[in-house]
Amino acid sequence: MRLTFSGGVHPREAKDATKALPIEAFEAPQVLVVPLLQHIGAPARAAVKAGDKVAKGETIGEPGGFISAAVHAPVSGTVSAVEPRLGPGGRKIMAVVIENDGEDRWADGTNVKRDTSSLDADTIRNIASDAGLVGMGGAAFPTHVKLSPPDNKPIELLLVNGAECEPFLTADHRLMLEEPERIAFGAQLAARAVSAARIIFALEDNKPDAAETLEKAASKIPSATVVTLPTRYPQGAEKQLIEAVTGRQVPSGGLPMDVGVLVQNVGTCAALQDACAFNVPLIERITTVTGPSAGRPANLRVRIGTLYEALFERVGFAGAPRRIVMGGPMMGMAQGSVEVPVTKGTSGIVLLDSVPGDVWRACIRCGKCVRACPVSIVPSQISVFLERGYVDEANEIDMLDCIECGCCTYVCPARRPIVNWIKAGKAELAERRAREREGAK
Amino acid sequence: MSQGEDLSRLSVATSPHIREEEDISAIMWWVVAALTPAALFGVWNFGWYAAAVVVVAVVSAAVAEALWQRICGTAVMISDGSAVVTGLLVGLVLPPSVPLYVPMVASGVGVLIGKQLFGGLGCNIWNPALVGRAFVQIAYPQHVTLSVWPVLRGSSLSRVLQDVRHAGDGSAAHEVVLGATPLAEQAVGSLAATDGVAEAMYPSVWALFLGNIPGSIGETSALLLLIGGLFLIWKGYINWKVPAVFLGTLFLFAAFVPTWKIPTGEDIVAPSWWFFGMYQIFAGGAVIGAFFMATDMVTTPITSSGQVIFALGCALITALIRLVGHGFPEGVAYSILLMNTATPVIDRYTRPRTYGTVKK
Amino acid sequence: MSETSALVILIAAIFTNNILLANFLGMCSFLACSRQLDTAVGLGIAVTFVTGFTTALNFLVQRVLVTLDLEHLTYIAFIAVIAAFVQFVEMLVERISPKLYYSLGIFLPLITVNCAILGTALFMVIRRYNFVQSVGFGFGAGAGWALAIILMAALRQKMGYSNVPRPFQGVAIAMIVTGVMAMVFMGFAGMVNIQ
């Protein structure tokens, strides 16, 4: 049986530039800008102020609620400011600016070995929370929240997501190839935290070498298997991955736990093992800096808070980039500046030498988007409604089920900005509902 | 920046940041390419006058579109090829003997009333080429209806065959009914030559398939239309189920028609069910309709299941008009137009089940 | 005429002699209720149901009137039968599907004055159909009306999000749509003659 989901597209993979390059440690720069909001949820509260000395791994931001994540100092040094700085979302957000003293002095209690065999579920969750773990595939949802399913939603299966379906990106690929034990170890801890009986490592068939190394690592875990899926975007989207591997569909508006599944990215698993076995918080990540305008593309192990411009000094340019994208080209965010920091969710930085035009035409109903849509909505009709501002009509035909993967917009021969309209439509609907709640009070 | 690259031109927009290359013009021009072999065959089959008809149709469609867009002050979009597709289809479904103002009117009506009045490409309800064709069929019946071949209704079948035989004698009917062409004459000639054998009164299935038979300019060569259609299927522009269901249903329907009831005379025999089925598929506009018109993106349903329903409806209505009606001998154009009318309804009830929901 | 089979009459009444597109009966509710597809579907089904059964009932009533030599009461009797039947359907729908009942709202009682229904009954008399033919004609006429309104509703909804040029919006484009529709339905012309 072919494990797959319905719909999807197959853009040019463009991974050749970096898939054979080993992960390279990138030296922490002089100044780091660590945003206090790098995740979905409430921003962290600053725990330091300008002039404070901080050690590497020290908490500099406390979680601002349950759905929030702690933030840690990626280097040792002095806090030079706590002020709004440009974030990858294009807006200024509160950030801790640290002057690196170059000593890499660890904070007390961090970077020490810990016996993980006795850790119970609650402890693992607390460690994940204290270490500021978030989903590292790009969405950056706080990990401890995902590890805390309610009692009536038992988790049966842990799916470790190594699909990395976005073109250009190879960070997860290299991680699976070079450090599969970290992933396997972290996956076991995650499975323990939610009492999942089975672990499945899933990746696309364009990474046979990684499948082999993972297989080796997984063979030591009795309940784990590795599955190879056809290369098809968005294989790595949570709902599509679940459908491909288990055949189950997450109910509309629901979460993976509704079908007994927890999905964790390979990078998150590796970070969980660091946090549990060494008490090392999430202060660095692997990110792929690549694209047609990148001079010497690389997979870099980068401290959180490193500004893009520092990375570009290492990578260089091949001609002026027209667009700098945080994440992959299908779902990533375009950046208007190079003074943006790497965050916990920066899976890659893609330098594109050309950008899609912004001239679009009427829908010719070719149906390509309908065939490409992985959630089986009718993007063409939704776009025709939204084009004219008919948000309610669009909502009636399941606009809210859109996962914004971009497949419809990628294939559209009329070059219609469908995803853009849907994002705006969702925002308008949310705003209207918020107003209605206000009115009801 | 250290390399001194100019980063002031960074553009910011929402994802996705890459696009597939294929755009509307690519699709349209590939459709034109897929129709070209059948068009060239039509010219070879019917002579240079047929080429003039097609060229007039294409040019009129393009000029009508350009004029309209100029008057409305919108961008002139001739280069996207959609008007050319419409014009080409108009030319191909007209008989080769029409006066040149007929393709001009058909293309003009098709593009202006059939398409632009509804808001241009993408907004039209009916296939513009067929709107134009239906219009001239009503406006100039003396030029359009008569020469459409074949008339397929039971009782009319024998009449047509008689016409064909008369044409073989070189009578005046030949000019009107068939449109004189060397190849058509050949076909008819061979019919006349084997007059003694009853079966030979009908063209062979092979001749119907290859296309050296009378008919509209571009509809006779099933073989070349099939090649063009398969190319479009391979390109992913059309759903193979549409022609399969359309032609398959039409064949089955025809195969069950009691052909033995056709009044037979001294030298007229009833065709076999096999021949009659093949005749229904290959002799009229069914092949060009099934591959190039029932698959038109704008005016047919958007989901695969909707397209199958559409094709089924087309086949049934075609069969109904051809075998029961006697108003118009050829039902393909009307069947597709009728189903175009139903497309919004079909779309509404064949929406796919959204991921994670229960079918309503 | 009396030899025409009920099936042929049924098909003819739906397509070739569509009560709405060919005889222009039932125009008012056609124009009023063709904005929303769901309403059109509900109304279409209700009209088909009512037309089919009242034509059968009216056939019997008419026979009785003829036997009693009370033919001059035909019109009144037909109207009474239709009104009573609609009342019955209304109660039935309210009982079985309150949702449909509320979505149809005012239009359900309006079926009473849908001239397509009375027209069907009168055509039945003029054309001297027998009972089986009348049933076929009744359901065919109703289904034909339903088909027309359902198609029109979907088209009108589509027009709502098309780029129709300003001067042609509204009535103008509706007339053009009707014109093309009439041209398209000519494909059926002469197929079956039930005049």
Summarize the structure.
The complex is a heterotrimer of chains A (441), B (360) and C (195). Chain B has 360 residues and is mainly alpha-helical.
List the helices and strands of chain C in order: HHHHHHHHH
Order of strands in the sheet with most strands of chain A? 1-14-13-17-15-16
Instruction: Please indicate the count of domains of chain C.
Output: 1
- Rg of chain C, Cα atoms, Å: 18 Å
Residue windows where pLDDT falls under 50 for at least 5 positions of chain A: none
Structure class of chain A: alpha/beta
Shape of chain A: globular
Low-confidence stretches of chain C: none
State the end-to-end distance of chain C: 9 Å
**Structural class, from secondary structure content of chain C?**
mainly alpha
Mean pLDDT of chain A: 93
Query: How many β-strand runs of chain A?
Result: 17
What percentage of the residues of chain A does DSSP assign to strands (E)? Answer: 15-25%
SS field, number of helical segments of chain C = 9
Biggest chain-to-chain interface with counts: A-B, 73 and 42 residues
The CATH level-2 architecture of the domain at 121-278 in chain A is identified as: 3-Layer(aba) Sandwich
Would you give an account of this structure?
The complex is a heterotrimer of chains A (441), B (360) and C (195). Chain A has 441 residues and is of the alpha/beta class. Helix content of chain A is 29%, strand content 19%. Chain A has a six-stranded mixed beta sheet, sandwiched between helices. In chain A, strands 2-8-7-4 form a four-stranded antiparallel beta sheet, with no helix packed on it. In chain A, strands 11-10-9-12 form a four-stranded parallel beta sheet, sandwiched between helices. The termini of chain A are far apart. The model of chain A has no long low-confidence stretch (mean pLDDT 93). Chain B has a single domain, classed as Ammonium transporter fold, CATH 1.10.3430. Chain B is built from 16 helices and no strands. Chain B has 360 residues and is an all-alpha fold. Residues 146-200 of chain B have low confidence and may be disordered. Chain C is an all-alpha fold and 195 residues long. Chain C has nine helices and no strands. Chain C has helices spanning 6-14, 27-32, 37-67, 74-96, 98-104, 107-110, 115-126, 131-160, 171-185. The radius of gyration of chain C is 18 Å and the shape is globular. The N and C termini of chain C lie close together (9 Å). The mean pLDDT of chain C is 84. Chains in contact: A-B, A-C, B-C. The interface between A and B is large, with 73 and 42 residues.
